[in-house]
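The material for today's practical consists of a large collection of protein records. Read left to right, the backbone structure tokens trace the chain's path through space. An example says more than a description, so a record of this kind follows:
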Amino acid sequence: MKILYVYDEPGWAIQKVGELWFDGLNGLTGIETNFCSFKNLPKIRTSRFDIIWYGYLGTFFKEIKPSQKPSFLHRIPPVKNIVALGRSVIAVHDPSELFPLSRQWQESGIGRKMRWILGNALGVVTVCKEMEEVLLRKKIKACTISTMSSLNPRDENDIVTNKCSAYAAYNPYPRKNSPLMEKLKSFCLDTLGISFEYKLGRILLSEKEYVSQLDSHEIYLCTSLQEGGPIPAMDAMVRGAVVLSTPVGQMPEIITNGENGFLCSSEDDFKRYLRLLADDHNQLQRLRLASRRKIVLLRNREEIQKNMLRFLQQLRTT
């Protein structure tokens, strides 16, 4: 089975996820995986591959209609432009790919063309159970293959709490709910008197720079309205930060409220837990260690590989 995995930009999360999913599979049970950025896709003779695996939905639409560059994916190209759908696997990472800006996306409908596209693709992959369940309710077969942080866990002896500071990954997308994040920034700086910073994403930094950035803060904040596999949160946890997040995507799978982080359904929730951690460094230290231990426990490349092999076997028999 020859697979071509297509990602958006070199170094971005979609490429990292693909490397994680297919790590160790080459040469195993006749599997051969090649990676290609969308920019280089025209140089590839795709007919020699059994499966074209699109790292996310937007990349799929870019190829089937290159002249159209939609800002959001609700502008679906005509069905007649879809080529080789029957050997395409499409990864759907977060709800915004299907339901832009919909707060109650679990109850939102999928358009006829989109339903047809996903229903007739060779396979659809999600990174969180919630998305898989929603697609299954909409009669679209999907399989969950989870993600994990690729960073080395921080040594527990290096996790020492003598201050409290918070950070968030800078991201201007509407689904990230920046108005709420700005309120929390003001709350940290003006009310609690703790530092708050927006940080650059991993793509702009070397791994050493990225790890140094993570290690300089004790709390990671995520106010997203929609998420899939929250790799920035997983990276923060594996380096010993406490995550305060809305209950979106994989967050409920990696955070047990009050044990290794906090799930926040409102602005008041965020503020209450921020105050708790700012006032009690012993509690913050306990949660930092618990956060690191929980995500390390969930790091299971063997389980990811097993799920991938099971999914590929299903494709073989389709």
Notes: Residues 281-298 form the longest helix (18 residues). The chain is about 35% helix and 15% strand. The domain at 156-298 is CATH 3.40.50.2000 (Rossmann fold). The chain has two domains: 2-148+300-316, 156-298.
